[in-house]
Amino acid sequence: MKKVIALVTGGFTGESVISLKSAEVIDKNLDRDRFDVYKVIISAQSWFHEDEGGVKHEVNKNDFSIEIQGKVIRFDGIFIGLHGSPGEDGKLQGYFDMIGIPYTTCDAPTSAITMNKGYTKAIVNGVADLNIAHSVQLFSNGKDTAAQILAQLDLPLFVKPNNGGSSIGMSKVKTAEELPEALEKAFKEDTQVLVEEFIKGREFTIGVYHGKEGVKVLPATEIVTSKEFFDFEAKYTSGVTEEITPGRMSDEEKNRVERVVLEAYKKLNCRGVVRIDYILEEGTGKFFFIEVNTVPGQTENSIIPQQVRAIGRTIKDFYTELIEVAIV
Known about the structure:
The chain is an alpha+beta fold.
């Protein structure tokens, strides 16, 4: 008998547009021979499923069911494809935990913690061979904030919303004069801001997932962008960035990276598939942790599908495994 799956997308933030694009790819690759799939769009205004005739069916939030032509649809599991809040910060996960429906992502505590870049780094600090850039976590922006940062950190700097995603609100600061504007931009997106020293090196991102045979690491992707950094445009615009999968690393680097990301995945108590971003520092080859994304993008330009194909698997097979592990 087929399992009934809700593909949840949308969201409350600017990342909702990416969520909807991810959902299109996920929807095309979910195995209809195994699953009955209903796409559910969540926004600040409403939660609904739109049928093929364009009729919207509101979600009953008491049990996350929908009613279509007098039939109540209840879900065996949830495929979360919603970036940002409430699908990536633990809010939806907590809701599904309360009503007893399993889902494909990390649980509520891990989702909430990893959404906060500063808190995440504090937890993974101590993992062998994992390095963290010097940083300052800000909770307010005053007239002396920029000067205080420059007294503690060396330029250039990255300024980013602490709980944001898709590099929205992020800036690379090369001079002291640029810092106040970058802080203002980041604080428009979040009440917390992380300022980090720039680490010169090659940037990579790597998928880690919990499959039927335990936790596995996908091939890393090397990010080579014509932009100053891997920003929103670089992530989602074709031709701006070269993504090399598998990334160019020595056997020693590959083995070390795999060991580090496996340990980070376990220490953060991750589930499902996550993407960990890191830099191999120029000259030293040291692994510098950037962040973990617990709901990685699944658009046509996204990294995880590339990495899945690189190991000779289909996206359909990969999604099937994620669902079956989640709802077992």
